[in-house]
Amino acid sequence: MSEERPRPVQIAVYRRSRVMRVGWSDEHESEHPWEHLRWNCPCAECQGEMGVPGRLRFTERLTEDQTSMVDAVEVGRYAVQPIWQDGHSTGIYSFDLLRRLCQCPECRSAAATGP
Ligand SMILES: [Zn+2]
Ligand SMILES: [Zn+2]
User: Fold this and answer.
1) In this structure, which ligand is nearest to the CA of 86?
2) Quick one: which H or E segment has residue 36?
3) Domain boundaries, the chain
4) Residues whose CB is under 5 A from ligand 1 (ion)?
5) For ligand 2, a single-atom ion, which residues have Cβ within 5 Å?
6) Sign (positive/negative) of CA torsion 51, 52, 54, 58?
7) What pLDDT does 71 receive?
8) Which ligand is nearest to the CA of 66?
9) Which CATH architecture has domain 8-110?
10) What is the distance in A from the centroid of ligand 2 to the CA of 102?
11) What is the per-residue pLDDT across 43-94, written as a single tens digit (0 to 9) for each?
12) How many A from CA of 47 to the centre of ligand 1?
């Protein structure tokens, strides 16, 4: 077994089903519904920083523009940065975070039953 952390080898954005799919170096296939990704946007504006709550704390629903992904670009070999239709693009999802957010049936049932 290699100690190396899995990294994305392929990132694809599917407009019709509104998901981003990530193929990993360990052959896992991640599924990321856009809306779920946007709710987990790790930027300071959305999540807050240094004890100050972010915008998402006070948001009950997101608009269509906020949950529509225009593109996803790889950042410096450690993260993925989605570009959203409302112009938001400051959320940098590290590969670790992205993998934790995976919504494929396998990961979801693992999260539900716990370790
Ligand atoms: Zn954000
Ligand atoms: Zn998964």
Assistant:
1) 1
2) helix 34-39
3) 8-110
4) 41, 43, 46, 91
5) 30, 102, 104, 107
6) positive
7) 96
8) 1
9) 2-Layer Sandwich (3.30)
10) 5
11) 999 999 999 999 999 999 999 999 999 999 999 999 999 999 999 999 999 9
12) 7
